[in-house]
Amino acid sequence: MNYFSSDFKLGILGGGQLGKMLLYNTRKFDITTFVLDPNEEAPAKLACNTFIKGDLLNYDDVYNFGKQVDLITIEIENVNLDALEQLEKEGKKVYPSPKTLRKIQNKATQKLFYQDNHLPTAPFSRFAFLSEVEDAIKNGGIELPFVWKSAQFGYDGNGVKIVRTVGDLKDLPKGECIAEQLVPFKNELAVIVARNASGKVKTYPVVEMEFHPEANQVEYVICPARIALNIQQKAQEIALKTSEAYNHVGLLAVELFLTQEDDILINEVAPRPHNSGHQTIEASFTCQFEQHMRAILDLPLGSTENKVASVMVNLVGAEGYTGNVVYKNIETIMSLDGVTPHIYGKRETRPFRKMGHVTIINKEVDKDRAIAQTVKEQIKVIAG
Amino acid sequence: MNYFSSDFKLGILGGGQLGKMLLYNTRKFDITTFVLDPNEEAPAKLACNTFIKGDLLNYDDVYNFGKQVDLITIEIENVNLDALEQLEKEGKKVYPSPKTLRKIQNKATQKLFYQDNHLPTAPFSRFAFLSEVEDAIKNGGIELPFVWKSAQFGYDGNGVKIVRTVGDLKDLPKGECIAEQLVPFKNELAVIVARNASGKVKTYPVVEMEFHPEANQVEYVICPARIALNIQQKAQEIALKTSEAYNHVGLLAVELFLTQEDDILINEVAPRPHNSGHQTIEASFTCQFEQHMRAILDLPLGSTENKVASVMVNLVGAEGYTGNVVYKNIETIMSLDGVTPHIYGKRETRPFRKMGHVTIINKEVDKDRAIAQTVKEQIKVIAG
């Protein structure tokens, strides 16, 4: 199929900031795009050819959307898989496939998949209801403290909580969840693997993630990770094994823990462009969004090498501010070397809401990290 | 004014491929954009908030468009300047200013401006009508051969012709023109200068241009230029002087000749993002489109340093093909190291029509140039 012709139609499920950044790269290739999103004001709405409002979890909305296009991809995992399976049966290309998405969408299933495939991950127990967790604590089935994770629809720190006392369970959702052993780790890492429809694979350099203590959101993404080369290689090997096990098409972002003993454990995966790859826009030979396009269109994959070192800073709403967003001191940070802000276009800010990100690029990663600190201290996402 | 708010409205005159690439960067900053273009199918239509169909040279179309926005910029010089002057009188920001545009839009005026400001340029004569040129040749006022340039609306090799015999004048437009001395030059160079509203200035590295012999279109843009450092500095100094003379806001692309005697002469300028800066998207710390945005919004200018060396190849329609475009062997070139195609989205190809460009990036410029050769040999923009 000639993708570089107006006959070909690409459908994207989800029109958030990932979809928006993906669309810039579809424009570069002049690909005709359809976007499905429940939000009439979705960030991606502007850069697509046809925007359709609909529920990503509703069978009919997803099925009817898919019927209009030739190839369907996603910017978010929480979509109706029955509809995607039906579309695949009817000959539509769906990347990542619903088969892959089923193994990822539910976090309990995801963890069991690692076990079944002998992929390293922290010990855990799966529970159908939160009440069972309480019983398990009482009868010694699991020990405190542990990490509670909702099996469904967790993102941006929602759906994850460290449980130190039975009381901590109080306000949690009642449904299916896992209790994961709290592993003391040195570092959180991530590796993005790209795989095209023909099975060609490329692995991005390892990034290091610094998390915000309260919000449990990534605060800095540092590339390359400041860890020993052999550990970087180990992380890439495990990411590659994970990618092989899923046999996905498109990107797979693999989030990893580096333990005190320098073991590497898989935290979770996302089969799409990912927050841990935003710095590739400025820093990599091939940005993750172009790479995802190359992969799902079965084009040759681009080089995953770095042009420069980088640090990505998430722009999240400051505590104590809700309302029309103002990016205080954005001019100040733009005067710093190698700094580019990316504003996602959400009108309303609230504490810890992801409003954008800032990329800092330089020849040396330490210089990036120092400037990133200043960026973090200077810019304030407030309401006004 | 807070540009990073939905209240601010940016107007762009022209919705071609330059406007389209400029818009990606407005999206990055979440700026609300209006685009005016005569073509209902303009490439930039997709990425703007509001598209208005209209004639860029019609007073009312430009004036009524400008009234709806806060700041007006251009992607093409050939716009109605009376309307822009009126809008400026009424307090709208117009960057570049109509005052600057008047000095550039007409090529005869542009050449006289260089003379008046002691900026080096090839000797020339200005003529109100083509007939006067013929007379001047006959009475020895100008010598053959010389370069004929239309004073109005020349671009992409249109409006420029080397005249070797009186017969060569036959098919030329009859209006105002200049006859420029044919200067034997080693090389064509270009330097882009960015100037923000506060007068802060930054200069990009010198690029070297290789032209297609027949089409008189840029075939390769090579950055950094493979010339001696002192000549690079000289070219940057002249570009900077030219920028100061125009006192423009936004980008100024300065095209230069390097003569056999290593003198540098100004060929022409463009007060906007330019074909000689496309490689900055992949290769520079700050791409020309983001830099133009920073300049007109009076934000701090970004670094103009290279991350990597680059070569840009124009994708033009192959001779002998007219009709629905097909990019033959695009998969082949995408398998080469550091190659990214940019497809402009024009449906119809014709000989030498600009259909897109390809950027090749690498650590060494010679490797880029070698790969660019392969790209040029492999890809064919044909009809099918």
Automatic annotation (TrEMBL), chains A, B:
Pathway info: Purine metabolism; IMP biosynthesis via de novo pathway; 5-amino-1-(5-phospho-D-ribosyl)imidazole-4-carboxylate from 5-amino-1-(5-phospho-D-ribosyl)imidazole (N5-CAIR route): step 1/2
Example GO BP: 'de novo' IMP biosynthetic process
Annotated ATP binding sites: 107, 149, 180-183, 188, 267-268
EC number(s) reported in the record: 6.3.4.18
Pfam families the UniProt entry points to: ATP-grasp (PF02222), PurK_C (PF17769), RS_preATP-grasp-like (PF22660)
Catalytic activity: 5-amino-1-(5-phospho-beta-D-ribosyl)imidazole + hydrogencarbonate + ATP = 5-carboxyamino-1-(5-phospho-D-ribosyl)imidazole + ADP + phosphate + 2 H(+)
UniProt keyword list: ATP-binding, Decarboxylase, Ligase, Lyase, Nucleotide-binding, Purine biosynthesis
InterPro entries, per the entry: ATP-grasp, ATP-grasp_carboxylate-amine, ATP_grasp_subdomain_1, PreATP-grasp_dom_sf, PurK, PurK_C, PurT/PurK_preATP-grasp, Rudment_hybrid_motif
Physiological role: Catalyzes the ATP-dependent conversion of 5-aminoimidazole ribonucleotide (AIR) and HCO(3)(-) to N5-carboxyaminoimidazole ribonucleotide (N5-CAIR).
Family recorded in the similarity comment: Belongs to the PurK/PurT family.
NCBIfam families: PRK06019.1-5 (NF004679), purK (TIGR01161)
Full protein name: N5-carboxyaminoimidazole ribonucleotide synthase
Source species: Aurantibacter aestuarii
Lineage: Bacteria, Pseudomonadati, Bacteroidota, Flavobacteriia, Flavobacteriales
